[in-house]
Amino acid sequence: MRKALSLLALLLALCVGVGGCALRGQETEAAGEISLPQPSDEPENMILGESAAGGMVEAALYHPASDFSGFSTVNQSIRAEVGQSLPEAAVEALLNSGIRAAADVRLLSCEYACGTATANLSIDARNANSPQELLALETAIGNTMLGIEGVRAANVLIADRSESCCQLPVGVQTAILPSVTAAYAQLQAERDRLAQAGAAPIARTALLYFPTEGGEWLVPELRSLSVADGAFVPALIDALKAGPRDERCAIASIPEGAELLEENPAVATLSTGERVLTLNFTSALANYLAFSGLEVWELAGSITMTMCSFLPELDGVKVMVNDEAISMCAIGETILQFEGGLMRRRDFANRVGSVATLYLLNGGDELQGVERAVSTRSALSPKRLLTELFAYSGLEDAPYRLPIPGAVSAEDVLGVQVVGGIARVNLSASFYRSCQTLSPRAERDLVYAMVNTLCALDGIRAVRFYVEGRAADTLAGSVYLRSPLMPNPGLVAEPAGAATAAP
Amino acid sequence: MAFTVIGFSLIQLVGEYLFTQRSRDDQRIADSLAEGFSDYLVAFDARSMYESARETARAQQSRVLVLDALCVVQVDTASELNGQRFITAEIDRVLNGSGGDYGFYDARNSAGGFFLLAALNGFSRANAMTGVYASPIRQGGTLIGVLVYISQVQEIYESLRDIQIRIISWMAIVLVAVLLINALVLRTITRPIGELNEGISRMSKGDLSARVRVRGNNEFAGLARAFNSMSERLEQLDKSRSQFVSNASHELKTPLSTMKILIETLMYQDPPDPAMTKEFLTDANQEIDRLNRIVSDLLTLVNIDNGMKLNLAELDIGALLQEQVKRLAPLARENGVELDCALKETLEVNGDQTKLQQVVYNIIDNAIKYTPRGGEVHCALNRSSKKAVIRVTDTGVGIPAEDLPHIFDRFYRVDKARSRETGGTGLGLSIVKQFVLLHGGTIDARSAPGKGSTFIIELPLAEKKKEA
């Protein structure tokens, strides 16, 4: 019996053993001689400052046809210089390529913020021989800017004024128009329709400028308007009252619900020939400003930038309180004075900011995109963006932070060079040393905070890190830095509310 | 054992089929993704790759990694390994120019490659079997990255494990059944044979008391009974032999001792007495005769034991009986015993005349010798069914009941002193019985002490007689 039991146990053990082998037979043997590929040696590349060496972008330049009925496109490689946006570079390239109907026309400035590009042409553009020729010029520039990746809307001004066509505001162009003839015919039809009583409203897209929570910038936002009876000014004021919709770091400039305007605003032509919009607010405006925390310049700038960017041939805005014109206001320590109370677009043009997305850790140690209002230069500059990222992380009360011990500053980013969509970031040795004690997760979060932030910029698809100009394997042993790193969208938590920091 | 081999061969085949099917499907997905991601990887379009990979990963409950040429994870649908280097044997082979390749790993075992443990454990369930499929991402024929598709195959393993458990269960049941049958066979066949073998072994070593336990009522039980019967018989024979040797020695020694005394007496007689010498020599001569009879009887028995051949012939048993009665009539008269013979019919038996004469003579002689003077001895022959029955009845001293069963034993004497006086060797009745048995007959004795005895001899009638 003992022998039988032993035999039984042996057989059962055999069953289990063989069964185990049968199941485990599919498992792959442990890897033997495998090795990771080694990168090729790289020469030292001490990147300093900011450059876009070799950062050529293919752009389609729209040239009006000889009869200004349409366009022919010329693809041209363009390169944005430091501090220059691609739309600006494209328009410069277009104007320099001998465009018809634009002889001697220069680009005075080009605002590029929040996906909207506003080209401000020299007054020479008014020398166009016909409205259609002018329309062709504006549309060519609009099309060219819209052809640039990231540009959602294009606005063309001439000497800080929006030009009309067929006595109607053209508005902001949001799509590439292939035919000038068709666009011109559309405008003519709308003009004729508006002349009739009870005509259907016309649709336009305008740029509204809203102050930001930090009180430093005015950020543009696209807004579709439906205007009846040519009441463009009330429509724009209502839109401003409605407040921002898209940008989470912007706020309304005119309160909704409280009627602060004494009378309907009107556009008048001064003796100097300038067209001016006058807005007369009640004395309650001061209470509103005190309550909302808005500065006077924010209200004035929001209204002036919005109106002058849309209303045809408008030279400026007069903001009055109890029939008394505001003739000066302060932006920080800078005092703006308005002669005769006339606020011009150029008075506030340098306050136009953009919105950048910075990636930082939230309270739950998750990487999260934080939208911040920054200058348009910062929004275009990877180095400045990293500076913003480090600066924001260093704020005492910042709800978001970077997982890096010790203080890091703008000086730790020695330079950034964008080449072929790859931002080469040269970090300082002190930054590298600060990262040595990071945990794998903190290292990952830090690296991808920078990578995701930079890759939110147009034209940057990946980021390659260097330390003091040399290729480094890792910062703390986990994330490999000898390859360009693409952004990690899966690491980012759901968007939270907007956050802006004090300047 | 064969069942085990078949069972696990089956598991192996099913497993290979399931894994092959699954690996084909998953490799196809990996190849398709790799082809689609080529342009995205060149353009560093991480978002497009991530969205597409995540959609596939969700649909297939899998995980997708996109590695660049340096094996740096650029896209991970679980967003855990981004930036880290990742390699397995499959990826290594793809980097070395192989097409798509795959392998299976146990998430508990990190030996599969760098960071594999982290990758697989982060995948979903720990302790899960995982398939890793690597597919090259090429652009214009140049390898620019590797797509890694990781899918769980735990459900296949669990299915196989279910089959395995079922087979093991059945195997255990079969084994228990085999054991039970084995025990039954052991009990009914092997053990009786073993016990029989043990008994034979003991017997071969001289232990004739060996007996086998009889179990049940089957053939083995019959065999055990036969063995026991045989061993009993052998034991009895052995005892008889011993007794026979003892008796024979004793019987042979007795006349020798007597002769030795007589001769020694004669030797030391000085001067010799002629009368005494003659008397002693006469006595010695008688002892020699007696010794001679004993030896003759013993030789007769030895012949019987060795398979004595009978000279069979049809003979008239009644005539034979009358002849012997007539032969012993003088002795009866000398002893004062009345001897008669009654024959009712003529009966023929198939027998050896000499042997049957000796049978009848011995019985009647015994009856005369043990019947006191004035007594009677009656002989009779009659038919009983197919047998001739000879009855020899005397009015002698009779045989005690305790001796009656042994009177046919060799050297058995009821009254030893008287028996020797009558010149008996103690072998007469034993020889008689053996002769009767050789003829296929029987002999029986009935007796009442003080009243006499009856010996009944039954012999089968001759067949020829019957046909006539």
Main β-sheet of chain B, in a few words?
5 strands, antiparallel
Residues in helices of chain B, as a percent range: 55-70%
What is the C-alpha radius of gyration of chain A, as a whole number of Å?
A: 29 Å
Mean pLDDT of chain B: 84
| CATH-derived architecture of the largest domain in chain B | 2-Layer Sandwich
The proportion of strand residues of chain A reads: 25-35%
Task: Compute the number of structural domains of chain B.
Answer: 3
Q: Numbering strands along the chain, what is their spatial order in the largest sheet of chain B?
A: 2-1-7-6-4
Write the SSE topology.
The complex is a heterodimer of chains A (503) and B (468).
Chain A: H1 2-24, E1 49-51, E2 56-64, E3 71-79, H2 86-96, E4 107-113, E5 116-121, H3 131-146, E6 153-158, E7 164-165, E8 168-169, H4 180-194, E9 202-211, E10 218-227, H5 232-242, E11 266-269, E12 275-281, H6 284-292, H7 296-308, E13 316-321, E14 324-325, E15 328-331, E16 334-337, E17 342-343, H8 345-348, E18 353-361, E19 367-375, H9 376-380, H10 382-394, E20 413-419, E21 422-427, H11 429-434, H12 440-455, E22 462-467, E23 470-471
Parallel strand pairs in A: 1-20, 5-6, 12-13, 21-22
Antiparallel strand pairs in A: 2-3, 4-5, 7-8, 9-10, 11-12, 13-14, 13-17, 15-16, 18-19, 20-21, 22-23
Helix pairs in contact in A: 2-3, 3-4, 5-7
Chain B: H1 2-42, H2 46-60, E1 62-68, E2 73-76, E3 87-88, H3 89-95, E4 101-106, E5 113-114, H4 116-121, E6 129-139, E7 142-152, H5 154-204, H6 219-268, H7 274-305, E8 312-316, H8 317-335, E9 338-343, E10 348-352, H9 353-369, E11 376-384, E12 387-394, H10 416-421, H11 428-438, E13 442-448, E14 452-460, H12 463-467
Parallel strand pairs in B: 9-11
Antiparallel strand pairs in B: 1-2, 1-7, 3-5, 4-6, 6-7, 8-10, 11-12, 12-14, 13-14
Helix pairs in contact in B: 1-2, 1-5, 5-6, 6-7, 7-11, 8-9, 9-11
